Amino acid sequence: MTLSHRQQQIIDKLHDTNGTLSSFEITSLFNVSIQTIRKDLNELSELGHVRRVHGGISLPANNHNIPLSHRTVMNLAAKQNIARKVASLLPKNSSVFLGIGTTLQQVALALKEHPGLTVVTNSVNVALTLSNSPNIQVYLAGGLVRPGDEDTMGLDTVAYLSRFNIQYSVFGVGGLCKKGQLLDFSVEESSVSNVIMKNSETRILVADHSKINRYAPLITGNLSEIDILIMDSLSASYKQTCKSFESEIIEVGTSS
Is 230 strand, coil or helix? Predict the structure, then answer.
């Protein structure tokens, strides 16, 4: 399900506050009926974006990511714009790590006609997307396949990825905090991102704006370790955060 513009604004406002919003605040903000807002909040709750509490909503009270099937359609146009930008930056005949997540799925689609790539990934979806491209060589890391996530994880996965010396890494994160820390939802995800960053020359982080100030329990790294950050849009406050780091920031917009 694709979020409406108002629903996305509700989530953004929730992250800008202390993590709670009353129904009165939301109806006042958008000047719509309580029935309309109630429908929005019920849908956001069912998708796992918010938690219904007495009189309003709060951020989800768990340490787990939203299911892949829901993430696939969230901010799709923004992810496609990010993917096209990544494709424009990668030279012909280059080698690239591609990480996991729905933005990376879009990156793989954008790279299907890219000539001479060598791709190393732990994403089953990415590998399948690129496997029929005659000019792309794909290496898929083995390991434990996570149900519903379409990727491999674990010590075997990290050991396999650590054998490569790659020119570019393109990967996502669970969240980006105000201090510039890169956050993930599990030790396994964090370990994979760390080895990808360690074994690549140029590190490209891709994220849509919903990742800003989004909570995840594991600290994977810092923006200072990233060469290029590609996002659809950055808030004024987060741009200020980024000024203290030397990463190149690229905004690609949210429209298709």
Answer: strand
